[in-house]
Design a protein that fits this description.
Strand content: 15-25%
Helix content: 10-25%
CATH class of the largest domain: Alpha Beta
CATH superfamily of the largest domain: QueA-like
Number of strands: 19
Order of helices and strands: EEHEEEEEEEEEHEHEEHEHEEHHEHE
Structural class: alpha/beta
Length: 382
C-alpha cells in the first residue's frame, strides 16, 4: 500500500541524544513526571505531565486506548539456520499471522524477504510467508510486512506469553520487561507495540482528574508494528468504539466540551467511527484510515501524544487535529528545548480550539489572528 503523495508540513531535525533510551523511572523520573509541551494557538508552555489537572477543564472528555501490549518479538531461524528475528504485527486467525522479518542483527526490516520462505520459531511453530501485506504486489517488489501461514494453528496471545519479548529498537539502552510497556489502564492484549501516549498516566493522576470533573472513556485499537524505519502509513488495525464511548463523545460535542484523544490510535479509531457530520456511532472491525490534510478530523478537538520521528506519517494525523502551523511550532519548541522522543520520552498536549473557545467566551478576538495563530511565546512554568 502506498500513501497518496501527501507528506507532513512539519519538518525538523533531531539533535544527538534526543531519544529516550529507557523508561523515565529508570532515570529517576516518575511516569507522570515527564515533560509536557502544551501547544495552544496563542502560546507554547513547558509543563510536567502531572500538571494535567491545571490544563484540562471539568466536562472535558478524555478518550484512552485500553489495548495491552503483547511481547511481540520472537527469535526465528531460516531453513539454512541463519537468525531471523520476527516481529508479529497481528493475528488474522490461529492459522495466519502478519509478521515483519528483521535482519539478523535486528536493526531493520529484511527487505530481501520473498514469498515461500519458511521460518522456524520456538515451541515447534513454523511460518511460511505467502503474500506481502497489506498490498500483495508492492510497486518496488519489496515488503516490510507479510502474511504467514502458521503450523500448527496457534493462538497468538498465548504463544507470545510463553515465547515472546517486547519489541525494542536500537535507541534503547537495554531490553526492558513487558510491564514497562503497559499503560495503567491496559486491559485487552493485542498491540504489537505500546500505545505509548497514555504511558505517563498514573492511577493517582486519573483519580485526581476524575474528581475535578474530567470524564474518561475507552476505545480499543490494537496497534501493529510501527513504521519507524520506513515512514509508511499504518497498516489496517483492529479497533472497537463501544456504544457508551460513542454516546459520551456525542454528548461532549453537543455540550461544547472538548474531546481529547490520548494518542494517535484513539484519533484513528474515533475518526473511523465518525460520520462526515461529526456524529459518532459505535463501530468495530478493521480500519485503514489515514488522516491528513485530505481527511481532517471530525470529532477530536484535542490530543495528548508523544513525539514522533521526522517524516513519520503520524505527523500528518497531528496536523489534521491541530493544524500544520501549530504542530510545526510545537516541534520547533520541542527540539530547541531538548525534549525526549519515542515511547519512553516526553509528551505533548495540543489544544487547538483554545483560542476559538476563549474568543467565544469573552466575546472578543482582538488578540487572535485570522489564522488562529498570532505568535508562539515560550512560557516556562512548574
Amino acid at each position: 500500500m502506498t500513501i497518496a503523495a501527501e507528506y507532513p508540513t512539519t519538518q525538523f531535525t533531531l539533535a544527538p541524544g534526543s531519544e529516550a533510551t529507557g523508561p523515565p523511572e529508570r532515570r529517576g523520573v516518575p511516569r507522570d513526571g515527564v515533560r509536557l509541551l502544551v501547544a495552544r494557538p496563542d502560546r507554547i508552555e513547558h509543563r510536567r505531565f502531572l500538571d494535567l489537572p491545571a490544563l484540562l477543564e471539568p466536562g472535558d472528555l478524555v478518550v484512552v486506548n485500553t489495548s495491552a501490549t503483547m511481547p511481540a518479538a520472537v527469535s526465528g531461524r531460516r531453513d539454512d539456520g541463519n537468525l531471523a528475528p520476527v516481529h508479529i504485527a497481528t493475528s488474522l486467525s490461529s492459522r495466519e499471522w502478519v509478521v515483519e522479518i528483521r535482519r539478523h542483527d535486528g536493526r531493520a526490516p529484511d527487505l530481501t524477504t520473498r514469498p515461500g520462505q519458511q521460518l522456524h520459531l520456538p515451541g515447534g511453530v513454523k511460518l511460511q510467508l505467502s503474500t506481502a501485506y497489506p498490498d500483495p504486489t508492492p510497486d518496488d517488489g519489496t515488503s516490510r510486512l507479510w502474511r504467514a501461514a502458521v503450523t500448527p494453528p496457534t493462538a497468538l496471545v498465548d504463544y507470545l506469553s510463553t515465547y515472546g519479548r517486547p519489541i525494542g529498537y536500537d535507541y534503547l539502552s537495554e531490553q526492558y520487561p513487558l510491564a514497562d510497556y503497559q499503560t495503567v489502564y491496559a486491559r485487552q492484549p493485542g498491540s504489537a507495540e505500546m500505545a505509548s501516549a497514555g504511558r505517563p498516566f498514573t492511577a493517582p493522576l486519573l483519580v485526581q482528574l476524575m474528581a475535578m470533573g474530567v470524564t474518561f472513556a475507552p476505545i480499543v485499537l490494537h496497534a501493529g508494528v510501527s513504521s519507524l524505519e520506513l515512514h509508511e502509513p499504518p497498516a489496517s488495525e483492529r479497533f472497537e468504539v463501544p456504544e457508551p464511548t460513542a454516546r459520551l463523545v456525542q454528548n461532549a460535542r453537543e455540550s461544547g466540551h472538548r474531546v481529547i484523544a490520548v494518542g494517535t490510535t484513539v484519533v484513528r479509531a474515533l475518526e473511523t467511527a465518525a460520520h462526515p457530520s461529526g456524529l459518532i456511532k459505535a463501530a468495530r472491525g478493521w480500519t485503514d484510515l489515514v488522516l491528513g490534510p485530505r481527511h481532517p478530523v471530525r470529532a477530536v478537538t484535542g490530543l495528548i501524544t508523544g513525539l514522533h520521528a521526522p517524516q513519520a506519517s503520524h505527523l500528518l494525523l497531528l496536523e489534521s487535529v491541530a493544524g500544520a502551523e501549530l504542530v510545526n511550532a510545537a516541534y520547533t519548541a520541542a527540539v530547541q528545548n531538548r525534549y525526549l522522543w519515542h515511547e519512553f520520552g516526553d509528551s505533548t498536549l495540543f489544544l487547538p480550539d483554545y483560542a476559538r473557545r476563549n474568543s467565544r467566551q469573552s466575546g472578543s478576538n482582538e488578540n487572535i489572528s485570522k489564522q488562529g495563530f498570532l505568535r508562539v511565546r515560550q512560557a516556562t512554568s512548574g
